[in-house]
Design goal:
Layout: E1 7-14, H1 20-29, E2 33-38, E3 43-49, H2 53-57, E4 62-67
Antiparallel strand pairs: 1-3, 1-4, 2-3
């Protein structure tokens, strides 16, 4: 499978002064599958095609689109901390 069909998880920061609901609607129309909306902090979490990340970032009301990653920490008893 090529990168065109690959999906990536993203975290979208909504620009201050923009209605979160309006930005969420625009993001969905642009191809974001919304998993969670956090109005208290102006953040939307979801997934989109990897090739679509730049298009989401250019939407009005969007401050930033960051690919979310997974962080793994060693167990507490591990010598490496």
């Amino acid at each position: 499978m090529g990168t065109q069909g690959a999906r990536t998880d993203v975290v979208v920061s909504v620009r201050e002064g923009h209605a979160l609901e309006d930005v969420v609607e625009a993001l969905q129309q642009a191809g974001l599958s919304v998993d969670e909306s956090l109005p208290e902090i102006g953040v939307v979490k979801g997934s989109t095609q990897t090739s679509n990340v730049s298009a989401l970032a250019s939407l009005g009301g969007v401050e930033a689109v960051e690919r979310s990653g997974e962080v793994r920490l060693p167990p507490p008893e591990s010598p490496v901390q």
